[in-house]
Amino acid sequence: MSDIIFDLRLLIGIVIIINLFLFLSKSKNRYWQFPVVIWTIIITIILIILLVQNEQINDLNGQYLKSAEGEKMGDVGVWQEIKEYKQQCIKVRIALFHLFGFQTLMNLVWQTIGYKKTTRKPFYKRTAITFGTIFLFYLIFYFIIGIIPIGSII
Length: 154
Hints:
This protein has 4 helices and no strands. It is an all-alpha fold. The chain has one domain (8-16, 32-147). It is elongated, with a radius of gyration of 20 Å.
């Protein structure tokens, strides 16, 4: 995977543009639809990427174990490839984690705007509280990652 694809600034810029475009083209005071759809798509993409990365790591581990049959250690080239791929996966996962947090914040903002603009409908209040809670968990996890380097968990 190319580093340019997972540059966090590029991803956040694209998400901002999509959010603004969809927000400006909204209809009938439906502030919740587009941000939630984008958030759901981001979650789906993150899950797919995690599954693909884990499958690739398992395949590389299988190659390494196969090369180690009857030997003390396996192919050093495959081991180095596994190590480099895991480092690349950590970078991608951290970028996607921050993208998730950013879109969660955007959802919180849009839901709060929807609550104030639509005569305080309870639906927007509930969704704002939900995204506020999710964003709080994101911040807690973000600070934990800053203290303890747990890149492989992400």
